[in-house]
Write a structure and sequence with these properties.
globular; disordered C terminus; 4-stranded antiparallel sheet; single chain; alpha+beta
Length: 344
Amino acid sequence: MRKLYRWAAGALAILLVMGGVLLSGYAPSDQATAPAPVTGWVKDQVVPVRIEMSEADYEHLMANGTLEQEYPGSVTWNGQTFPQVAVRAKGNSSLSSVARAENKRYSLKLDLNQFADGQSVGGVTTINLNNSFSDPSFLREYLSFEAFASLGVPSPATTWVELTVNGKLWGLYLAVEQIGRPFLERNFADASGALYKPDGEKAGAGADLKWRDDNYASYPGIVYKSGEVSGDHADLIAMLDVLNNGGDLEHHLDVDEVLRYFAASTVMSNFDSYQGAFLHNYYLYEEGGRFSILPWDLDPCDRRGAEPGAGWNDGRQHHRAPHLRRAAGCQREAAVGRDASVQG
């Protein structure tokens, strides 16, 4: 394990140096202050996690993981037991691949408050246990979230765990906090804003953030998750309008945060995201009418051979990003003291 941490530290240092080069000349905004560490989510050890459920439910899960059905169970996290927790398999392409494999080592989602209120690990109520299906190093997702966070991009808590299910050792997993209310409360001054999870692969049009019209129904790919919305998602529509058609972009978008997101995302070849063909694995959060972009599902990051045209990446990641073009334009014009309104 000591060698693992030395390797991780070296790889993270390289990522951060590269990110620092990309962001030279840009000072973090006042909001780019790292939140306090989350209790129970440690960085210097592998946390033991034990799940117990009825044998019938366990057998059903193993045979029918793609249904993503919830099962009642108990979870013991580093010695603290939560007696009533919802457990289900999770994933996209990885879920179906694991279901076909002989060793069904599913990624799991734990909802600590589904059956009992007030249960959390350091305030986190929903936990993803990721099997690092496409990451034999078990480091990519962890290091990628660390790199985003180091650049002031709000990122979920993570920790490695050793998972046992019904007495069977499932091995090393990366625990990742679900982006939801506890995450927003820790990272933003106002956690009541609208949270969206775009998905161009499953949900449809709109996840590319291109302008269609002023009707939210025309953007089924920008999936509303939670929080307060004004009118028919008026803040979202206003942001998309300005992003594509011009106007006061910094009034509707946290340009500094968005630039930092894209700097880290590009350095780490995060093409299973907004920058890739599927237009998913990112969140949008609105705070006071102003949007931030949040990273998600980073285990495919930094895969060798993921240059334009390879795998999920269709080679258009830099050209289809109005966020990157217009935000960078705003920063360039601001640097010379001119009006920061740039046509997309």
